[in-house]
Structures
1.
Amino acid sequence: MGRLAIMAAMPQELQTLLDAMPDETRVRRAGPDFWVGHWEGRELVVVLSGIGKVAAATTATLLLTEFQATQILFVGVAGGLGADVQVGDVVVATELLQHDMDASPLFPRFEIPGQGLSRLPTHTALSNAVAAAATQALATGSGRRTTHALDALATQRDARVHQGLIVSGDRFVSSASESTALRQALPDALAVEMEGAALAQVCHDFGVPFAVVRTISDRADDTAHVDFGRFIDEVARHVALDIVRGTLRHGS
Ligand code: SAH
């Protein structure tokens, strides 16, 4: 089955995964600490991706060249863009795009120069396994915490799993004007974050299967920063743990 790599965006998410792994050892390469071990009978390497596209691309490249990862799964949080994508929901990417890539007029806006592509697809079987694990996570334990723990932020309805376009850029999107502009330019974007499309480009170059899953921490508007840390502690790290466990148990 090879070695599955897990990239976590936040230290709290990384620590929660490490606490669950029985036997990890630390290996340091070019900055980040990589944790190599097993969980649920599978060989794993777990790492903090760092924030932003360059950090994610460097980390993904090291996972593939130094740690022989055969698949990569990114777990983290994101801002919701889709009209029905609410705080506490989970979005599993079917494709990723860099929303701040713009070499126009030389290339169409969003296109990666030289690649002839703007949207990079994720691995379907791995993404579907992750979506099934996310559905399970929200139906049992970790999802329910969203409504109890964060009354001020959570919506009244149960958390949902969405699959579709996630966009990435080197900006924390925290104003209504910015998220409205993104929605206008990319009407089918479900969520915005800062790393996924970089991982996608590296995996695309190496021909390695990958998936990206994000718990929605905010609506990428003027309140995006409110309770961000608390959301990770109380909700996102538990959902991430359940999703990784479910993906390992039920196939990937
Ligand atoms: N204040 C945070 C900063 C984290 S940056 C800190 O203390 O570390 C936000 C992280 O969450 C990034 O990894 C990004 O991928 C994701 N994210 C969540 N909401 C986002 C938004 N509205 N815009 C962009 N990225 C977002």
Note: Residues 228-249 form the longest helix (22 residues).
2.
Amino acid sequence: MSSLEFVTRSPEETIAVARGLARRLPAGPVLLIGNLGAGKTTFVKGVAAELLGLPERDVSSPTFALIHEYGEPVRLYHLDLYRLETAGEVLGIGIEEMMDRPWPMLVEWGERFPNLWPRETPTIRIERIGEAQRRIHVEGIPQ
Ligand code: ADP
Ligand code: MG
């Protein structure tokens, strides 16, 4: 398992980093960790562009929907658990079934429910280090 670090200076650079990692993401949950506005959803735009050829505008925060499914047929899940408060609520939206699917499940705010994820769940942490600068730390993605 690798640990990788990137520094980006624009949303476009974050999308490029995400594109570069997209095909290495394993099936199942990957936690996207970072404050509001860090760039988690921007990262998903890069993954969806690389895996599915989706235009950036088709990827938005599932803050209210909770889950976005991308691809026809579905090949990528994108969750935002910001509005959920308990692990029971998260289980209630069907994450166990989603975790068993053979494609990646990118989860924003999933670290708030640590007991729900398998022990070696990969993490992508995005830290705002300047107006348009971000540090992206990737842990647990297979080589
Ligand atoms: P989150 O999902 O973490 O709340 P978003 O991806 O929705 O964050 O928003 C990130 C915001 O930060 C966007 O407005 C984006 O344009 C801006 N931004 C500025 N610089 C960067 C960068 N280097 N990487 C990603 N986003 C950036
Ligand atoms: Mg978001």
Note: The pocket of adenosine-5'-diphosphate (ligand 1) is lined by residues 8-11, 13-14, 34, 36-42, 61, 108, 132-134 (CB under 6 Å).
3.
Amino acid sequence: MNAANKALVLFSGGQDSTACLAYALDTFDHVETLGFDYGQTHKVELECRAQLRSAIAKIDNWGAKLGDDHTLPLPALAEIGGTALIGDGEIKMQENNLPSTFVPGRNLLFLTYGAALAYRRGLGVLVGGMCETDYSGYPDCRRDTLDALEAAINLGMQSDITIDTPLMHIGKAETWALAQELGGEALVELTLEHSHTCYRGDRENRHAWGYGCGDCPACELRAAGYEKWKSQ
Ligand code: ZN
């Protein structure tokens, strides 16, 4: 099988990476998943991954395409970061217009580790949920950043790996619509039930849009996207 038909999905267990996994299973012949454990405050996101994988494998012929799951520990990020996502800090907007959850260069590291693993596994495509329309404006989610990284990776590894970002230019409402289009009600339902987005790791409070505290920036974004999609 050609490497260009085999993908590695950066799969955190959130709504976006669930849509990316569905996109990859719809598009490629063989799909593996990768999660990072970098001392998140909320290991719950990593724990949701297994439930999502087994549920998504029941849709169409996706189970036959779904390959190995990988988890890489990246504890160095917690040492460097000390921001709200991985420490005790409060989640707020900083003076540079980036939220305090921003871990500098996080996606660059994720994709570089992903590329090294993809190289080893003979997978030609990296799929990630980076998105320019996200409220947060993470500079390492922008497509021009990823084009530069893709070029650097392929020069540095003498490879031909593609970074595929299906959510780059769509908003949260369109991500729900994409889930519906790719996997129907079953995919929408499993995304609602098992995907995790809340920065506070809340799995107690169930809303129409899924589990979460309801007032952290990630919950607000997810809730607004769901409401917008439902009202269309
Ligand atoms: Zn929340």
Note: The mean pLDDT is 89.
4.
Amino acid sequence: MPTDLHLDGQTRVLHFFAPGRVNLIGDHTDYNGGLVFPAALTMGTYLTVTERFDHFSCGFESDDTPDTFTLGSEQLAQRQHAWVDYPLGVLKEFSDRGWNLLGYDFHYHGDLPIGAALSSSASIEMVTAVALNTLCGEPFTQLELVQMAQHAENAFVGMNCGIMDQFASGFGKKDHAIALDCNTLEYEWVPLEMSGLKFVIANTNKPRELVDSAYNRRRAECNEALEILRRYVSVENLCQLTVPQFEKLSRNLSGNVLRRARHAVSEHARVREAVTALKAGDMARFGQLMNASHASLRDDYAVTCPELDFLVAAAQQHPGVLGSRMTGAGFGGCTVTLIAEERVGEFIRTLGDAYTQRFGHNADFYVAEIGDGAQ
Ligand code: GLA
């Protein structure tokens, strides 16, 4: 619950938090109706909401950028082509449902690396959604807020993302990963019993340009594959196909469309197996599946880059590592590595040095701490 302070007996100040996420396995499956396995981080976005003196506008500022905005009711519905589009998209979701919120200042600050595939955008959307819901007297469920945040990103920001990031930010649970079926939205919290292992995140610090258009193109290629395959089999999405079913049908596809669909189907199968492995405490198998996931994202989905491939290859050769892969959309951003705890320090030093030598800039490393969802 937010802390509700009354300053001078008049101005209300409310505090909210929504986490980023690390996806352990299952990338580019969410919009194909498949399984994903993310976990919410303890890093995320904090939001302080204060009542304004005027009740005709809203103010937006962030510690991470000098761009501040004061917007009246008409401007609130327009894209500003800036970071503020994430909160504005969410405000629009509320106003489309009859809740017009004016007269607040929104102050954001965060400790997630921005645009690094740890869902900084989803955490801004979710922290805004939870805040607005509180201001309105909580008319919406957490799942509705997740869906509104995803729709804000699709319809307002123009990034055709799936539901994984907003869901992970909304439904995170301390020391658990979320096995989410993106077709039915059924989910299960799976305890991360790590027995001497850690997940280490490595940020390539590679500026991610044109990610949205490349991402939307992958999504379109999957839709094209689905349309073709539906001439031969009755499915609603690619991840309803098993690997053997897909192999039989795959002669009807070719080129990139074949490769994209093959990744989606095989990745979905890997997530299913990874969840079973984790529950059985078979971390060695979990690590192998992470490695296979990276290979598929590199070779079939073509969303890795030299920086990600370098960090993953170096990790996979490092003593104590069980598995390593890119996480999130790709094209830059982060890797996640499953490693023996006592090797973490030396791992970070060795990979850090090798990375700087190869690319001329530093990578950042975080030992993942898994926390609760937006509140
Ligand atoms: C981004 C999107 C998600 C998901 C991942 C890839 O993070 O926002 O919906 O598609 O990429 O798994």
Note: The domain at 4-191 is CATH 3.30.230.10 (Ribosomal Protein S5; domain 2).
